[in-house]
Amino acid sequence: MSLSFTTERQVAVAAVRRACGLTASVFNKLVKNETLTKGDKSPVTVGDFAAQAVVNVMLGRAFPGDAIVGEEDAADLRGEDATSMRTRIVELANEALAGELGLGDMAEWGIGPGQELPAEALLEAIDRGTHAGGRTGRFWTLDPIDGTKGFLRGEQYAVCLSLIVDSQVQLGVIGCPNLPQHASSPEGPRGCLFVAVRGQGAQQLSLSGAHPTPIAIPDFAPEEVNFLESVEAAHSSHSFNDAVAKIMNVTRAPTRMDSQAKYCALARGDGAVYLRMPTGVGYKEKIWDHAPGSILIEEAGGIITDSRGQPLDFGLGRTLGENYGVVAAGKSTHAAVIDAIRKAKEQEAKGHM
Ligand SMILES: Nc1ncnc2c1ncn2[C@@H]1O[C@H](COP(=O)(O)OS(=O)(=O)O)[C@@H](OP(=O)(O)O)[C@H]1O
Ligand SMILES: [Mg+2]
Ligand SMILES: [Mg+2]
Ligand SMILES: [Mg+2]
């Protein structure tokens, strides 16, 4: 049985579109005291918080019973020292919620004139993202800005939303405000949305949600294979990717790109392999960093697993648990990557790397 998730898709596209508008506009005005450093030393900006508030308000209105696993929480925004950040977030979120309706968007998911939400309501909306996830039931995952470091550099970032039902990702929407619409014209128009619904294929749309175009991962001849990888060396091992690429006789240089824009690029054939290997022990990948990308890859005809070929398990809570690394590629390439990873691991164990 395949469910169509028509309304879910419509709400998700509308919410991601509004969040993309917000983040793109905030970037140009971002000032120094609008970024915090979280407990894990990673940055978070007023854009991340406001985008999470907007998406959660819209989801709450359209699907009041649904839980949300969101990256951010409002704890750091409640104190007196956060007054100016809080004020800015309230302003940004209300502006986006009151903004013009896009294609398929509905007035009742946002706010009308004079209906601005107070700070407390928006902080509560952000905190609706604290759901623990789990094996059964239905919940959304939200990464309001994935690739915050890329966002701060003016490079790639993505607004990422997915719907998970009984541990299976059923819907994914990724908004990439800075991604060129066509990889072949990197200086051409930027900004795209990617949508995948289980059993319905993958599509690229304009940022406004118009012009859906089916996308699929092409077959790559061995000499055309190239890797997509993280910009931040702390997030994914560049040297291990290098070793795997050598084993596969890959000659093309890797493309480094922040965020789940990598999954989008892979899904439309801009690259052949997305490989993400842990850089140290202990970090567990977050479900919001991979759920939307994973369904996009599968619906574009590709395969996504961890580095040992195991399926990603979205039913373990907020993290991917014991899944080790991530490998995504087209059907004709994926097995070769898993094989090369095994060989690279053997070399590493023998001290040859
Ligand atoms: N140590 C470690 N290992 C692996 N991953 C980590 C690590 N620390 C952070 N993160 C997560 O990486 C997310 C950023 O995505 P990418 O790594 O693809 O982008 S980047 O190129 O590295 O910027 C980033 O997502 P955002 O916080 O939404 O930007 C993090 O969830
Ligand atoms: Mg973050
Ligand atoms: Mg992220
Ligand atoms: Mg994020």
From TrEMBL:
Top-level division of the source organism's lineage: Eukaryota
Binding site for Mg(2+): E71, D143, I145, D146, D289
Lineage, top ranks: Eukaryota, Fungi, Dikarya, Basidiomycota, Agaricomycotina
Class of enzymatic activity (EC top level): hydrolase
Any GO molecular function: 3'(2'),5'-bisphosphate nucleotidase activity
Signal peptide: none
EC numbers for this chain: 3.1.3.7
Record NCBIfam families: bisphos_HAL2
Annotated protein name in UniProt: 3'(2'),5'-bisphosphate nucleotidase
Family the entry assigns: Belongs to the inositol monophosphatase superfamily.
Catalytic reactions on record: adenosine 3',5'-bisphosphate + H2O = AMP + phosphate; adenosine 2',5'-bisphosphate + H2O = AMP + phosphate; 3'-phosphoadenylyl sulfate + H2O = adenosine 5'-phosphosulfate + phosphate
Organism: Punctularia strigosozonata (strain HHB-11173)
Keywords in alphabetical order: Hydrolase, Magnesium, Metal-binding
Gene Ontology biological process terms, A to Z: sulfate assimilation
Cofactor annotation: Mg(2+)
